[in-house]
Amino acid sequence: MIAHFHAKAIKSIRGASLKACYNSTPSKAVSFAEEHGGVACSTIEELLSRPDVDIVCVCTPSGAHLEPAVAAANAKKHVVVEKPLEISLKRCDAIIEACTRNNVQLCAIFPSRFSPANLALKQAIDEGRFGRLTLGDTYVKWWRSQEYYDSGAWRGTWALDGGGAYMNQAIHNVDLLYWLMGDVDTVSGITSTLAHDRIEVEDVGVATLKFKNGALGVIEATTSAWPGLLKRTEIHGTTGSAIIEQDQITLWNFAKPKAKDAALLEKYGKNSAISGGASDPKAISFQNHAEQLKDFIAAIKTGRTPKVTGAEGRKSVEMILAIYQSSWSGKQVQLPLAKDPRRPAKK
Fold it and tell me: Which CATH number characterizes residue 16's domain?
């Protein structure tokens, strides 16, 4: 599904074009090429051997990112990997190492960082407008039907999904929270599966965090909240509070207002009917994907690092794995993790 959003994003970027695609099901590659352009390749080796391919976007199931990403890096192609970077630290590190070894650029897709409302929030934090940060919360209370999980054999499995509501849906907001608030020191989490059958992973979870700067936080994630609510991020400090709901500013209040605040609220504070994927995974815009791909192209051309590197993408995976470890062990977990947590044996 997400490959179609990448294709639309590429098409919207001046000077970029989709040259080729590959799918392990050949008929899907053919139909994809017919819809979006480019050549349908019969093997990944055929795609990687093309001299007109500079960047490879990996849009496979989460636990199948490693192999095509490493193959692309070994072919000296720059690599874009959809979230999550991978489903374990070991597999994330293998992708990062392959790109470093082959001197190619790597980025993990986190388009929420490129939302104008979130960029304004990040700027306000960097300007010190919140004073001392005290609390950072994020909530992804979405709905996914049983049919959604039944639509693909990989969905809801540890082997290929790598987790549930945290790893697949809320990871965007997990990434946002540490980007905004800073690195995390400790995590406590609890997860459960309450609303869906035939899945191995969680469909609801609550986690509390302590950031390295001393602030506290909460991450709630679920795919069992009908009919699906807009995702929300709240940042609070000693001199300011702000709330972003989806990509709209619903609260923007500071002890020292600035003239630009009114214009910001006028532009990004209006009510929106966008669902943002709350109940339908296809109900998202490709625009922020386009902005991230533009940044990646600019990074390649200028030799700078992209705004979201592989190392940045690894952090959200590590945080989610720490939540899982805490839920399985019943104990608080210290970051960074020394190794990938081991799931308890089935009873």
Answer: 3.40.50.720
